[in-house]
From TrEMBL, chain A:
Annotated localization: Nucleus
InterPro entries: RNAP_P/RPABC4, RPABC4, RPABC4/Spt4
Protein name: Metallothionein-I gene transcription activator
Gene Ontology terms: biological process: DNA-templated transcription
GO molecular function, one term: DNA binding
SMART domains per the UniProt record, alphabetical: RPOLCX
Source domain of life: Eukaryota
Record Gene3D superfamilies: RNA polymerase ii, chain L (2.20.28.30)
Positions of the UniProt region annotated as Disordered: 1-22
GO cellular component: RNA polymerase I complex; RNA polymerase II, core complex; RNA polymerase III complex
The family this protein is said to belong to: Belongs to the archaeal Rpo12/eukaryotic RPC10 RNA polymerase subunit family.
Keyword Nucleus: yes
Any one Pfam family match given in the protein's UniProt record, by short name: Zn_ribbon_RPAB4
UniProtKB/TrEMBL annotation, chain B:
HAMAP family tied to this protein: RNApol_arch_Rpo3 (MF_00320)
Keywords, in A-Z order: DNA-directed RNA polymerase, Nucleus, Transcription
Boundaries of every DNA-directed RNA polymerase RpoA/D/Rpb3-type domain copy: 63-368
Gene3D superfamilies named among the record's database cross-references: DNA-directed RNA polymerase, insert domain, RNA polymerase, RBP11-like subunit
Keyword Transcription found: yes
Record-stated family: Belongs to the archaeal Rpo3/eukaryotic RPB3 RNA polymerase subunit family.
Protein name: DNA-directed RNA polymerases I and III subunit RPAC1
Signal peptide segment: none
SMART domains found in the cross-reference section: RPOLD (SM00662)
Major site of localization recorded for this protein: nucleus
InterPro entries in UniProt: DNA-dir_RNA_pol_30-40kDasu_CS, DNA-dir_RNA_pol_insert, DNA-dir_RNA_pol_RpoA/D/Rpb3, RBP11-like, RNAP_Rpo3/Rpb3/RPAC1, RNAPI/III_AC40, RNApol_insert_sf, Rpo3/RPB3_RNA_Pol_subunit
Pfam family, one: RNA_pol_L
Compartment(s) of residence: Nucleus
Amino acid sequence: MSREQYQIPTGSQQTFAAGGSNTVATSTNREFETGIMHYTCGDCAARVPLEKGAAIRCQKCGARVLYKERTKRMVQFEAR
Amino acid sequence: MPRKQPTEEDLERRKIVSVNAETVTDVTSTDFPGNWPGENHAWDIEKVIRDTKIEFHQNEPAEASFSLIGVDASIANAFRRIMIADIPTIAIEKVFIDNNTSVIQDEVLAHRLGLIPFTGGREGLDNFMRWLPKPKDNEPIESTYFDYNTISLELKVTCTDNPDAAPGEKDPRKLYNHGHVYAKDIVFAPVGRQVKYFAGEDAIRPVNPDILIAKLRPGQQIELSMIMHKGVGSDHAKFSPVATASYRLLPTITILQPILGRDAEKFAKCFPEGVIGLAKVTKEEAARQGSGYEGHAGELKAVVVNPMLDTVSRECLRHGEFKDKVRLGRKRDHFIFNVESTGQWESDAIFLASIAHLKEKARKLEQQVVDMVR
Ligand SMILES: [Zn+2]
């Protein structure tokens, strides 16, 4: 799988049932399709939905610093 | 011309490593064939069985101390190295992180998880769990995962505010729910026959449930699953069954000339407590000519009580009055082992397993030598 190209993850990649689930919240997929992205407010830590072209601003406190959320994909590490 | 055979005393003296004020001499062993003219020091199984002794001083699950007497340093060292690097344990090997919004980075978190010692039912660990085989080329690694070589664990913690906390509470453990993530928060997820082997008391669990893994604040979350495999310490230290496995040689203290009265008290203070004791000079000793005790009946003299407790600090050799009255040394074939288990094995079982492992290695070597000659 190319790193650049985004693929919507499916739950069927995992062969070993117990070894790490790869399921992704379906709400995220819907958000992705509707073009709404969620960010985290740098001031009040609220989850801020933003549409394309919307002002980069927290709807709760008005702060202008928003952080990107962590990936919803599973990340694998060696415990070494 | 037949040479004089060594006396029992000679043989004992040859076993002593001399510890002098500033040097250590007679370090290497001399009891090998061809070293002493006319003496036979060939390896002999009967002699090994007769001379080798093991004496336990302390034997608890977490720590054992014992003496291995009558073997060469190479054998004692082989046991030590096998205990550290070749006795298998299970440890977390892969971490699948679904979410980690804590301040501790994924890599560091995975590394910390790997180092947590786990334990479980002996029957399951010894006889049921096997090595993870290498996957065949162009096959995914998961194709080799089975219930007998892979154990899965989960850790799902979310930190929240504790509404019941007293006003003005400062302790994060009371102020928040799951402000600290501990090893006991890890959940064992048995698969297949693991349900049978690791049931109830025998469940896979951290040896020390209070190991701190991470700290969280409200809103932060750790959600991950892990898999464990069997491994050995030569691959990674997390697989080593011992925290320490070390030996030292038994110290010897020989008092050559009498040390009496105030000197004896001072001499005792040169050693850790319990090494040197004070005893009264008996009438017989005082009566014996040339014993050095003449006319000192009833006075206190220094006697060696327990040289095993000595740290061989050589403090006594710094004092002019004792310098020529005492000889320090170590017994070259008396190894005082100290084995501290990380909890998956009982510490004495680790030593027994190391003996079995050395035996197995010797057997394999023998087969290879046979094949080589053929
Ligand atoms: Zn805000």
